[in-house]
Amino acid sequence: MWNIIGTRSAPDRFESFDPIEVLYEFDGPRIFTVSDSEGGLNLAYWSDEDDRIARYVVVPTTRTIVDSLHSGAITVFQALNQPCCWLCDVAHDGTLVDCRRTEFDDIPRDALPAVDALLLPSLQPPGTERADDRQSRKGHRSRTVGS
Hints:
Layout: E1 7-8, E2 21-25, E3 29-35, E4 41-49, E5 53-60, H1 63-71, H2 76-80, E6 85-91, E7 96-102, H3 131-137
Antiparallel strand pairs: 1-7, 2-3, 3-4, 4-5, 5-6, 6-7
């Protein structure tokens, strides 16, 4: 796990790291909303994990941003790229171990989602297709009704 560049936040900044709304789940919540100690809505993104902790990128968010993620109007990277950012280390029992305020640009690039990654693959913009979709049709003639 990489070293965090940033300043330690108050230990109660995110008193409970319980998801409010899970946006993406794979072996547990990976992208979800969480409340801070002031009742503000935040977006949490699972970034890394080891045998002791899971590290999350946490940024303030709005219902508009969450709705835009759901619709595919913005990417996960865009939603996370906010002026205010924390890295939170959470023990596997859900206990917040460490939380540090950092700059988004100080997070290692490989610890963030791809710039063009949408919340779900099914949100691909119209007229685009994934490489595996193109490959599966390679060599097959398109058919239309009546052909």
